[in-house]
């Protein structure tokens, strides 16, 4: 019972933990340009040979960050860009899963499609970033048209791929290829590739990186570890309990052997020995010994055997009957001579239907047994079940009555107390 409660508790804890990791341990990093650790910059194509001009407009209280841009012709790849820098240290975004953007853009496009924005996560690495100039930071890029999206736009960080144009001009060794978001130094919002000459604006109301304080895969790995440790602890505990039960069983067997009084003829317990054995069984196993089934059997026409063949043969029949029962019963079942030619079998942890089947099997064993003087000996069987210690005496009486009903019904048969 305790094990079941512990298993249920572990299942509930797992479910609560998964839900908590998803909903209660959310981590949010806001990009608002207000914090000292964030610095806003306007950038354009002047440094690349273009003539476009970008500037940050004064920000009204509670209003968006607005980049105003004049895209001018004469350059193949004109752009304007809003940059959020982190002068106090690079960002490690590996524990975040999403970027939520409240973002709109305006401006003409060459193909008259909705204006696009490029979002860059620019990472630093000493092996390819030199002194940390923006142009040498590895850009991870996503391009989309924000005005066509429901706000906020939610981007998975797994969607950000290294810009192909940067990878061509910055060949890297294999270990450094692919996304690297452990040292993000600049986050940029740039005009799209189809931006036409004219006035453009990028308005960023808010940006949030969203993740968990404990990464889901790390948390789930921890849960797997918890289950494995719990399973190992259970196996250790179960092994210890098995050894303890074995020791108790050995001790019980020894104590039963000393305490049970035996019938001098058949060498099985007598009535008093069975009563003491049942008491000891209840002390050692308690409720674990139930249901307990009781089988009464009585050798059919035994008086006729004594009268016809004499008491010596009758005694041999009783000895053969007892030894046959002992050989064909499980070790934990208790056998006793109740008196005369009556015997009782007590079967711990055995329901009524199973005890009836055992009695039927023993009845067939009797039919194959070689009896003294070439006799054919049968028995009448009565079976009853006790569900708890308080019902043992009643079960004995009920089995005894069922046995007499078996005799009245023609002998050599098994009748249960419920029949």
UniProtKB/TrEMBL annotation:
List the Pfam families.
Answer: GGDEF
PROSITE patterns recorded = GGDEF
User: What region holds the GGDEF domain?
Assistant: 290-419
Family annotation (SMART domains)? GGDEF
At the top level of its lineage, which domain of life is listed?
Bacteria
Q: What is its EC number?
A: 2.7.7.65
Keywords in alphabetical order: Nucleotidyltransferase, Transferase
Identify this protein by name: diguanylate cyclase
Q: Which organism is it from?
A: Pelomonas baiyunensis
